[in-house]
Design brief:
Layout: H1 11-27, H2 35-50, H3 56-64
Length: 75
Amino acid sequence: MLDRFSQFLGPEELALCQRVFDQICADASLDSKSIEAEDLAAAVLTAFHCSPNRTEADLLAAIRSRRNDFEKQTG
């Protein structure tokens, strides 16, 4: 999902964002190709861009705090 942003991020930065994206998708049982995953990808990249020196754990925590924004809404 995040590969299309490789021109804007270095390989290490892209890998970190991809790991966070993959982990949140797994946590939320989210299909990585869903509309919700698109929102998640944007949030991961935005959070990274706003604070590029944060650790993977920090980025995961920041995104997990917004988990409800990415879970598929039912009924």
